[in-house]
Design a protein that fits this description.
This protein has about 160 residues and is an alpha+beta fold. The protein has 4 helices and 10 strands, in the order E-E-H-H-E-E-E-H-E-H-E-E-E-E. The mean pLDDT is about 85.
């Protein structure tokens, strides 16, 4: 797929609706009929990728709650700076314009981040500091306007 077609024409978009993007086109998947597989596309193919990352994190780090796992998946997403085609308008846009994180899920980075958070209780990334405070997560982000603080409450 070309960079411009990274986002499928059926993808949901919007900062209030989409947190991260995941592969969902031509996914080799099982279909009914025994030991049968086919290439499938859709959000029904993308959501299991994200769910699989969440399950992987929880398998190794069961101490994390749902909000913490979501935060790890979001914070570990790889930013994609090049323009893509916005399926709702057909115009070029950045992922950061059509999703909250502007990134693609990354299982390796999510597991690395979960491990560091489990071992040390904190993570430093480019421009961000994430710390476990009891069951809550505190995120400090450096912005041109100063420091932004976010708290992710435990369930």
């Amino acid at each position: 797929a070309s960079k411009a077609s990274l986002i499928a024409n059926f993808s949901n978009v919007g900062k209030g609706e989409v947190d991260v993007f995941a592969p969902g086109v031509n996914i080799y998947a099982p279909v009914p009929g025994g030991n049968t597989y086919d290439n499938l596309s859709g959000t029904s193919m993308a959501s299991p990728v994200v769910s699989g990352i969440a399950a992987l994190i929880l398998q190794y780090y069961p101490q994390f709650n749902a909000q913490q796992v979501k935060m790890i998946i979001e914070q570990s997403a790889v930013p994609f700076e090049e323009e893509v085609i916005n399926p709702s308008t057909g115009e070029k846009a950045k992922l950061s314009d059509i999703s909250r994180t502007g990134g693609l899920v990354n299982a390796h980075e999510a597991m690395r981040m979960a491990d560091e958070l489990a071992r040390t209780g904190k993570i430093k990334t480019d421009g961000k500091k994430i710390k476990v405070d009891g069951g809550d997560l505190k995120i400090k982000t450096k912005t041109p306007q100063g420091e932004k603080k976010t708290k992710v409450k435990s369930a």
